[in-house]
Write a structure and sequence with these properties.
By secondary structure, this protein is α/β, with parallel strands linked by helices. About 45% of the residues lie in helices and about 20% in strands. The chain has 18 helices and 14 strands.
Length: about 450
């Protein structure tokens, strides 16, 4: 941080403390993470980056009403004070959502194509803290923004009283630990399809909690808290061990992809634990894809890179998940640590008017280092067509199939030829004629 930035940050803190000392509680502090800004600057150059920075700063001033109510933590991080009458959760969420939407709108007139900077926002009201001061407010906004970023780009989170949060997490932790011991947490599988010929080449293992009273619980309901508490390490390994056993029963040489969280990437014994799980199912490393997100690499970069190198040495394929939603680790790609890049849906399904150039550039980048590409989250014919047009290798999403329990996925494989196939062009023609293949106007249940 430059001396100028440090000075601005001190002034920002002083203004917050002055407002609090005067008894004011009519504001909230929001932390804005510009998820794609650093990558856009890398790709388009400093001149374009500076022009985008000016536009985004103007938008923050527009929302806050005063340039003195904004400070910069880094190129990708801003803190802004917004008018907020009280700590009502829904009102704060709406305020954060509007800010996120405004900051994420495409920027035109700087390059030939529009550019969208994905944004996550964490927000806090002074009344949510037992001892509100500038430091605690800024820390709480940071906690909220980290919580939002767990779910990807274009997300918001409202900071709540930690005493209540910890009580909730503690209760959830006890239930989740018991569920792990009882085998209630298990993998469901979503097929991955080779777009050139429709062959099903593998599946991603996705955690599901078969709760005795709530039914099938999706990971969004328990994974974020498990990451906070560290229980995610046990969840990862439980899913991996079961997925390896299940994949050993699949016909042919289908691969299984498993997610590894940031908490596990710095575990020096992780690779040995994974190898032990494979031995149980007589599965070889070449049939396993280890998926890690860009965000997880940012947690402890040195440990993560060491772990990935170890996986590569044993013959595993490492997949860079959600590419385009967070930080960009070009050096890790360049060094050959990843054999696969999963393209985030925010790139596959761009804002209106945005061309396919950025998606094509990501595909070309992956190919230049010998990595295959997976277009994830395909839900519409337009998204499938973009994936085909830009040369993505594999596709995954609701348009092909929803996640299935292990026994249903095995039936899915055995229902057709071995290996199973999807008629990609026939599916595309059918959806284009009939409209969406899924009724997106209604909410999906956890099992869907």
């Amino acid at each position: 941080m430059s001396d100028e930035a440090r000075s601005a940050a001190r002034e920002f803190r002083a203004r917050l403390d002055q407002a609090l000392a005067a008894g004011r509680r009519d504001f909230a502090v929001a932390r804005v993470e510009l998820d794609r800004f650093e990558r856009i600057r890398d790709w388009h150059g400093d001149a374009v980056g500076d022009a985008i920075d000016v536009t985004l700063t103007a938008r923050l001033v527009e929302v806050s009403g005063d340039p003195d109510l904004i400070t910069r933590e880094s190129d990708s991080l801003r803190l802004v004070v917004l008018t907020a009458d009280d700590s009502d959760h829904e009102a704060l969420a709406l305020l954060a959502w509007r800010l996120m939407e405004r900051m994420s709108e495409p920027i035109t007139g700087i390059t030939d194509d529009s550019i969208a900077v994905g944004t996550t926002v964490g927000i806090v009201h002074p009344d949510s803290l037992s001892e509100p001061d500038s430091t605690n407010l800024m820390n709480a906004a940071t906690v909220a923004s980290h919580r939002a970023s767990i779910h990807g780009s274009r997300r918001i989170a409202v900071f709540e009283d930690l005493s209540g949060l910890f009580g909730h997490v503690s209760e959830l932790d006890r239930s989740l630990l018991s569920a792990l011991d009882d085998g209630q947490v298990r993998p469901w599988f979503q097929p991955q399809v080779r777009l050139s010929d429709g062959a099903v080449v593998g599946a991603e293992a996705l955690a599901r909690w078969d709760h005795p009273t709530l039914g099938v619980v999706a990971p969004s309901a328990f994974v974020p808290e498990a990451e906070w508490s560290g229980i995610i390490q046990r969840v990862d390994l439980a899913i991996l061990e079961q997925a390896a056993l299940t994949a050993s029963t699949w016909p042919g040489d289908l691969q299984v992809a498993v997610n590894i969280s940031a908490a596990n990437l710095d575990n020096p014994h992780l690779t040995q634990r994974v190898l032990a799980a494979l031995n149980e199912g007589a599965l070889t490393p070449d049939r396993v894809v280890i998926e890690v997100t860009e965000t997880s690499l940012a947690q402890d970069r040195r440990a993560a890179m060491s772990t990935l190198a170890e996986f590569r040495a044993w013959g595993f394929t490492a997949s860079l998940d959600d590419f385009g939603a967070g930080h960009a680790f070009f050096d890790a790609l360049r060094d050959g640590l990843f054999g696969e890049v999963k393209i985030d849906r925010s790139i596959l399904s761009p804002h209106r008017g945005e061309s396919s150039a950025f998606l094509a550039a990501v595909v070309d980048l992956a190919k230049s280092v010998g990595a295959r590409t997976v277009a994830e989250g395909i839900e519409t014919a337009a998204e499938l067509q973009r994936a085909l047009d830009t040369g993505c290798d594999l596709g995954q999403g609701y348009l092909f199939a929803r996640p299935m329990p292990p026994e249903v996925f095995l039936e899915f494989l055995r229902a057709g030829d071995v290996p199973a196939h999807v008629d990609v062009q026939g599916l595309l023609d059918s959806v284009q004629q009939q409209g969406a293949a899924w009724d997106y106007s209604r909410p999906r249940s956890a099992s869907e």
